[in-house]
């Protein structure tokens, strides 16, 4: 059976007592023990703490007629508790903490200069009644124009058939509405990109300014 390594011994640890040291001194010359256990006993003889596993291994392998009582070896001994090693922070946690620190610095800077720097006003689409009314009139005019163009086109193509002319007008109206919707989406997307780029540039300004200070 493999014997435990004294350098890598784990588990319960107790403080060394004089009976233990005397027992280890006798165990160094005990022929019943293996050479490895005698070396372990010699090493533990000069230590202030003793792993319980090693002590019990030496005591079990020694001569039962000469070895002391196991409980007597623990007379006056105390448990020794070792502090666990501090956990190292992972790279992901370090990066997250760095981002949180940067956000906190930005908030702190914004709080310091809020009375100096004018607050930016974000213009929302259709934020006023005038904008809403103008957009509605523009869409209505576009759809009406699309209806007229479709109606006139189908009337010329199908010999002034009323049903087909009306269908052409409806088709022109729908196409005009789709074009207007597409243009609105493109315009809104561009406005959002401009606003986000402004926000990004302003968010990096506090940290850079603080470092320069």
Automatic annotation (TrEMBL):
Transmembrane spans: 135-154, 166-186
Stretches the record annotates as Disordered: 194-213
Topology versus the membrane: Multi-pass membrane protein
Compartments reported by the entry: Endoplasmic reticulum membrane
GO CC annotations, alphabetized: endoplasmic reticulum membrane
Main subcellular location: endoplasmic reticulum
Keywords, sorted A to Z: Endoplasmic reticulum, Membrane, Transmembrane, Transmembrane helix
Listed GO biological process terms: vacuolar proton-transporting V-type ATPase complex assembly
Source organism, top-level taxon: Eukaryota
UniProt xrefs under InterPro entries: ATPase_Vma12 (IPR021013)
Name of the molecule in the record: ATPase, vacuolar ER assembly factor, Vma12
Organism, as annotated: Microthlaspi erraticum
């Amino acid at each position: 059976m493999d014997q435990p390594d004294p350098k890598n011994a784990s588990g319960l640890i107790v403080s060394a007592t004089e009976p233990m040291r005397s027992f280890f001194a006798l165990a160094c010359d005990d022929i019943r023990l293996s050479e490895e256990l005698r070396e372990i006993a010699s090493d533990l003889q000069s230590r202030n703490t003793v792993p319980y596993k090693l002590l019990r291994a030496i005591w079990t392998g020694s001569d039962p007629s000469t070895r002391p009582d196991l409980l007597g070896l623990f007379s006056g001994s105390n448990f020794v508790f070792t502090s666990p090693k501090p956990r190292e922070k992972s790279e992901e946690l370090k990066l997250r903490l760095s981002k949180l620190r940067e956000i906190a610095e930005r908030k702190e800077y914004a709080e310091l200069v809020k009375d100096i720097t004018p607050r930016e006003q974000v213009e929302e689409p259709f934020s006023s009644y005038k904008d809403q009314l103008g957009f509605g009139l523009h869409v209505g005019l576009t759809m009406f124009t699309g209806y007229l163009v479709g109606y006139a086109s189908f009337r010329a193509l199908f010999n002034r058939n009323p049903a087909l002319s009306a269908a052409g007008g409806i088709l022109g109206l729908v196409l005009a509405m789709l074009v207007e919707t597409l243009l609105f989406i493109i315009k809104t997307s561009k406005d959002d990109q401009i606003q986000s780029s402004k926000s990004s540039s302003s968010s990096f300004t506090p940290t850079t300014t603080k470092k320069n200070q």
